[in-house]
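Q: what sequence does this backbone want?
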């Protein structure tokens, strides 16, 4: 299961059965019942995106709780863009051309971090 234990019943270990995709897409959070882990086509309503992107996601604290093995405590802007695009594209199982692959394009929300402290205006 990688280097970190799952928290909040959110396990993204690719070796698990069922695979992580089935554990997160259109699945309500058991800890935060008003949130769904991944809402296809709606990253702004997806708990996974809010948790890795927002300093105050509205449901617990920012992920990962103890930081990444690199020492960073947040995703890079490119990583956030990839997650945003994957969810906005409908959270597809297979790769698509619509998911961020190259230079960052401004989506009307990106400055440094999307929703740095939740849903405040930029």
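A:
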């Amino acid at each position: 299961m990688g280097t970190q234990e799952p928290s909040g019943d959110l396990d993204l270990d690719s070796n698990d059965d069922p695979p992580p995709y089935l554990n997160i897409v259109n699945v309500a959070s058991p800890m935060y019942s008003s949130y769904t882990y991944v809402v296809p086509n709606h990253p702004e309503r997806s708990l996974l995106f809010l948790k890795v992107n927002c300093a105050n996601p509205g449901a617990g604290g920012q992920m990962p709780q103890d930081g990444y093995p690199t020492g960073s405590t947040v995703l890079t802007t490119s990583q956030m863009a990839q997650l945003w695009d994957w969810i906005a594209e409908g959270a597809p199982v297979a790769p698509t051309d619509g998911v961020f692959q190259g230079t960052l394009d401004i989506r009307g929300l990106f400055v440094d971090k999307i929703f740095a402290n939740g849903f405040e205006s930029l």
